Amino acid sequence: YLNKNYKLMNITNKTKFFYGIGFISVGIKDILYAVFVFFYFSQILGLDQIYTGSATLIAILFDAVSDPIIGSISDNYKSKKWGRRHPLMLMSAIPLGLSTYLLFTPFDNLSQFELFLWLTIFSILIRFFLTLFIVPGMSLGAELSSDYNERTVITSFRIMFTTLISPFVSLFGLVYIFIPKEGMSTGLLNSEAYPKFALFCALIMVITIIISVLGTKHTIPSLPKLNKKESISSLIKNTLTAFKMKSFRSVVFFTMMVYVAFGIGNSLTTYFLSFYFELNQNEIAIIIFSGGIAGLISLFIAPKMGEKFDKKLSVIISTILFGFFMASPYNFRLLGIFPENGSSSLLGIYLILSTIGFTFLWTSMSLAYSMMADVVDQYESITKQRHEGLFFSTMSFAYKLTVGFGYFFAGILLKLISFPTQTDINDIPTETISKLGIIGGPVLMTIYFVSILFILKYPITKDIFKEIRKKIQGK
After folding, report:
1. Which residues, at least 6 apart from 92, have a Cβ–Cβ distance to it below 8 Å?
2. Where on the phi/psi map is residue 109: left (φ > 0), alpha (ψ -120 to 50), or beta?
3. How far is CA 277 from CA 250, 264, 339, 369, 445, in A?
4. Closest among 27, 33, 23, 110 to 289, alpha carbons compared
5. Which H, E and C letters describe 326-355, residue by residue?
6. Could you report the per-residue pLDDT of 108-133, keeping only the tens digit for each?
7. For residue 265, which of 470, 450, 33, 461 has the smallest C-alpha distance?
8. Is residue 396 a contact partner of residue 127, using CB atoms and an 8 Å limit?
């Protein structure tokens, strides 16, 4: 399948920087859906929460087809100048930016169903064009090094850029674009601000992807080269072989469970902070920084933990810690030991707990993606073939599938607690707002802890990995 004479380079920090910078686009997409999309369509435009969640869920059906197709195309693409990964990555930039802008510019006076269609169509397009970047991008990261620990460093750079810049983008928008008009309790209610902010985000997404592609182009001669394309039947067979591997299943299902809870929490971020803790938009912007700060910290923690405890144990420890700290503001409030709303200490304590939680979340995810790169090696040792695109398209789909389910379940949960749309906080019953704490605390923490059951079955240790590499190299 691949020529075995390619050179696996000693990747420099400069290359890691350019590799990671393209994933700023992923972080911006995530923050848009976490803070702005759900709130915009539900609270500003009045779209029913079931419609809002269903739009993302429907987009998943298209991901189920597009992700493996993009993975297959990326694995089988052949270009002497641009390699297998870079053409698709570059191709994604402008359409992704355009789709992001159009999402926030629906026509006036649309009906509920027409508004639902608008959200659905552009969610599908955004996710598809993001797939064009993510799948070959993650595959490229796995190809840059065959070193057990270096792979964690590379994934940490990717996650650091995914999480670090988007809070600055969000802060800029909340301070300079989402300016409240007279009578508005928050600038997030300013409908005119959303298209302007979307354009700002779209430009950053386009520019950073292009910089990443051009900045890593020099690695192409050292990457694996395709010798022979494979048929569709072979790809189906390879997929089935992958799912028979315990290592593959454990990483995928662990990631899925984590992202189910993360998707619910992400889509309800604005609800939690605005209604449950009664923070204003500037305070929300500060809280959002916890994810970015954590991404930078995890750049150093993830590789250190992977070396000290090995990857599997590090993921288990990290998951326990981020599950506890992410849910702690809500659990502590339910227990009556968290500062009351309006307290001068609330923002600082929440920020600290959130930063710790996100630090170990990103650490856990860095290690999980590094583990998947090791699974690709194990697959090669069994089949004599490499399919980074196939494996990371599955991870991409797992991420989007479960975040999509998260948005869908978030809509259902809001419906179950009878949370109204287009309503001022003063008009929402106290008992309804209180129920948000149960979702943010016990519900999400339980799902995070359940995910550990899957990673317990992961079989690859550092010693086993060394044996795998020896087998691949014919030693």
Report:
1. 129, 130, 131, 132, 133, 209
2. left
3. 36, 17, 10, 34, 18
4. 27
5. HHHHHHHHHCCCCCCCCCCCHHHHHHHHHH
6. 989 999 999 999 999 999 989 999 99
7. 33
8. no
For the chain, the average pLDDT equals 87
Burial class (CB in 10 A: 0-12, 13-18, 19+), 93: buried
Q: Tell me: the pLDDT tens digits for 341-352?
A: 999 999 999 999
What are the pLDDT digits (tens) for 245-257?
999 999 999 998 9
d(CA 286, CA 200): 20
More confident residue, 4 or 66: 66
- pLDDT(309) > 70: yes
For 238-289, the DSSP string reads: HHHHHHH-HHHHHHHHHHHHHHHHHHHHHHTHHHIIIIIS---HHHHHHHHH
User: How many CB atoms are located within 10 Å of the residue 243 CB?
Assistant: 11
Using one digit for the tens of pLDDT, what is the confidence trace for 191-242?
Answer: 899 999 999 999 999 999 999 999 999 988 888 776 555 555 666 777 788 8
Nearest-CA neighbor of 79 among 204, 217, 214, 234?
217
pLDDT at 251: 94
Tokens coding 86: 């870079």
Contacts of 349 (CB under 8 A, 6+ apart): 329, 338, 339
Tokens of 154: 């590379």
Q: Three-state secondary structure along 389-431?
A: HHHHHHHHHHHHHHHHHHHHHHHHHHHHCCCCCCCCHHHCCHH
Torsion of CA 223, 253, 134, 461, to 10 degrees: -30
**Contact 16/160 with Cβ under 8 angstroms?**
no
Kindly report the backbone phi and psi dihedral angles of residue 420, in degrees, each rounded to the nearest multiple of 5, phi listed first: -80, 165
Does the structure show a pLDDT above 80 at 408? no
